[in-house]
Structures are given as structure tokens and as C-alpha cells.
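re the bet — no i am not wrong, look at it urself. input seq straight from the record:
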Amino acid sequence: MNSDVAVSPDSRNVSARPTSTRRWIIGAVALTIMGAALSYGYSAFIGAPVAPAKGSSRGPLPRVAAAEISKGDFPVILSGLGTVTPSATAIVKTQIAGQLIEVSFTEAQSVKVGDALAHVDPRAYQLALAQAEGQLQKDVALLQNAVRDLTRYETLNRKMKDVISGQQIDTQQALINQYRGTVAIDRALVDQARLNLSYCRIVSPIEGRIGLRQVDQGNYVQPNDPNGIAVVTRLSPITVIFTLPENRLPPVLRKYRAGEKLTVVAFDHERAVELARGRLVAIDNQIDSTSGTVKLRAEFANEDERLFPNQFVNAELLVETLHDVALAPAAAVQQGAQGPFVYLIGPDSTVSAHAVKLGPASGERVVIEDGLKVGERVVVEGADKLREGMIVSLPSAEPHEHAPIHQSTSAKNGAS
């Protein structure tokens, strides 16, 4: 009797079937892992989250708001915080010492060059002028007498050479020259006394509006008083000095040096009210190394005097206008590890993350230089719950779905 156990074909198939099944399962798992890794790698590249496989989520589809990429003009505007500065300021001071006997201006009144503002007691300066004029008359008389004596000496010397010596004539000529110098000094002293007397009438050195009175009538004033009598500021035209970052300066310099008139608009502190429109008139010759900014000066007519000295304003400089560019809502732009991206909505309502190259931006919209086409739809609300390849819901009731981006009147591309 043979001791070997016979094995039937069915028994061999049963033992081989589990091995084949395990191989099939391992292969399926490997393919799933590879697909997930590829999906994660792309999403990680642009910084977008990874979505679970389609159909793996049994919850409702995420609702998002969308907007179309539009085409239009985009004004490139640089903004910065500025300070209103008068085009001219003068501290009205006395140029002589004395008692202030009259203040002839009203606070906050408009004045012109040469308008009398105050008077200093003139009596001491009148006496000084009279004294200087008297000394001048005395020295002029001495000069005239010396000239007559020289004439006599020269006449006698021609008739009788032995009577008048040449040395005496030379001495007399020197005396005349001395008197002439004295008379010149006297005349300068008279002019100085006359000038000091005119300084008793204190006048406005510039045209503008005078401020509050700094000294009252009856006080003793002198030239070294730090506050002076009042301050006159020119309010029309007026200027605004504002700053821009140094990296925003090149296009401004290019336009300014080409002679183009660059418009500057001044807004209030809240950026809610437009105060005035003017033009750029000057760019500083150096960059502030501590802040990395450069100062610019804009001039405004300010006929309505809405701009006031030392007032803080927001200045917006229109550099240029970009025509026929792709515009996206700023809310659609997300920031990833490799830069900005948007969620693009496909025809089948699936979302995919697309890297984009941004241009100038405003508070509501941004220029897309590369990565999107006009007419494509992007997610503007609800992007925080999206994953790559996820199907989204676009309720037709939402008014901004499929709506193009409205153009704003200004683009504030930053420099505060």
C-alpha cells in the first residue's frame, strides 16, 4: 500500500487562490497611495489643501460665491500718508527794540505784502535820525571850508611861490579827503537812522492769512523774541508732503522726468472724502535710510481752503492707467507656500487651484498678469473649506455668481 497522500486538483486551487487575492489587494492599495501622493504633491506645490476622493464625502456640497475674470482699465495709484504744508510761512518780528504802541491787525485776517500789522514807539528813533542829520551837516560844512582853503592856497602858490609851501597844500588835500570820509559815514548813519525809524511800522512780509496774536500792545519787543508778533501763512496755493516706498519710485521718476503732469488727490484721514486735486511738483533728492521712503511734494490751488496747514491727509498719486487687463476680485486670491493662487471653477463645478502672477492691486480688485483668462470663474467666498478637485455648489440665488467685477474709480496700490 502506497503511503503517499494523493492531492486533487481542487485542493491545489484552493491553496493558490488566497495568494492571488492578496496580490490583487496589494496592487490596488499601491495604486491608491500613488494617486493620493500625486494629488498631494500638486496641492502642496501651490499651497492648497488636499481633497478626499470624489464620492468619499457624504455631506452636502460646499456652497461658494464666484465671480468672472473681467477685462478693463485699471488706474495704478500709489498712496501715502501726507502732511499739509503752506507754500510760504513767515514769523512777523520786530527789527528794532521798543514799546509796542499799536496792534493794527485782526486775528485770522487776510493780509498782503506791506500791510501794517503793528507799530513800535518811534520817538527814540526820530531823535537818533535828527542827531545823525545834524552831525552830517556839521561835517559837510567842515568839508566845504577845507575845500575853500585849498583853493586859496593853490592861488597864492601860483602868484607867490614862496608864501605857501607844497607841504601845506598836500596837508590841506589830506584834510579834505578825511572830511569826505567823515561825511560818507555821516550819510550812512542818517540812512541807518531813517531805516530804523521805518522799522517802527511792522508790516507783513508775505501775502496770506495771519494767525493769533502773540504779544499785546504795551509790551516791550525786540528782534530776538522767538515767537514774534504773529505768524503769516500762505494758504493758496498750498502743498502736501507725502512719502512713498523706494520700490515704488522708479515709475514715478520716469513719468516725472519725462515732463508728464501727475495728478495727486488728497483725501481725509478716513479716506472717505476727497478734499482737493493737485499735481506733483517735486521729488526729494534722497531716500530716508531709516524708513526706506522718499518724500514728494504736491501742490493744490486750495481756493476753498479745505486743506489746512499741518493737517494729516491721504495722498493718492495716479501714475498710469493700464488698459484691457484681466481683473480679479482681491477676495479670490489665496496665499500658499509657493505664492498666490486662486480656486478656478471648472464647467463641471469642480474646483482646482491655479497659481497666478499678480500685478497692481486695489482694495477690491487685482490685476492678473498670468494664470487666468477673461471669462473664467473663481471662488470669492468659501475658499477656506475647499479641497483640490472638490465639487461645489453655486446657488443661482446669489447675486454675485457669474457677475463680472465692477471697476472702482481708484486703485490704492500701497505705501502708507
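see?? Residues 1-18, 40-45, 53-57, 397-416 have pLDDT under 50 and may be disordered. told u. also Helices lie at 9-46, 123-159, 166-198, 249-257. so pay up
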